[in-house]
Design goal:
By secondary structure, the chain is an all-beta fold. Helix content is 0%, strand content 47%. It is built from no helices and 12 strands. A 4-stranded antiparallel beta sheet has the order 3-2-1-12, with no helix packed on it. A 4-stranded antiparallel beta sheet has the order 4-5-6-7, with no helix packed on it. Strand 6 and strand 7 (74-76) form a beta hairpin. The chain is globular.
Length: 131
């Protein structure tokens, strides 16, 4: 099972990405992590794993992706709503979760294509892969 921990208005919940369902509505809080330093304007949130860096930005499209540690960037997430958080799997860097204020979106190819989960959560503020 691949799951993420999500902080939202109802508390901290664990969501199974494979089954697209909440599996624990009393999960431990999202682990505190230092976001990577991203020298871009309008950054809302960012995550990194190895040389992959993904930043949520306050513009359209709402994501920028770097596969070389931030030297070059490409836009991603055309069609996605504005976001609040992003997480990259520590085990599979192509597996990314992007959070809007109410919904999670999953990419299994490093941010090129996205699938919205059916689970809706109110006022999402943070997301991280479950340990």
């Amino acid at each position: 099972m691949t799951s993420v921990v999500v902080e939202c208005a109802i508390g901290t919940v664990e969501v199974d990405l494979d089954e697209d369902e909440v599996v624990d509505d009393s999960a431990a809080p999202v682990p505190a992590a230092s976001p990577p330093a991203v020298d871009l304007p309008l950054v809302v949130a960012a995550a990194a794993h190895g040389s992959t860096v993904i930043a949520v930005v306050d513009r359209r499209p709402p994501l920028v992706v770097s596969n070389d540690g931030g030297l070059t960037w490409r836009e991603a997430g055309a069609g996605l709503r504005p976001g609040v958080a992003v997480a990259i799997s520590p085990d599979h860097p192509d597996l990314v979760v992007y959070a809007t204020s109410e919904r999670l979106h999953v990419s299994r190819d490093g941010g090129r294509f996205w699938t919205a989960l059916t689970v809706e959560l109110p006022e999402i503020t943070a997301v991280a892969f479950a340990p």
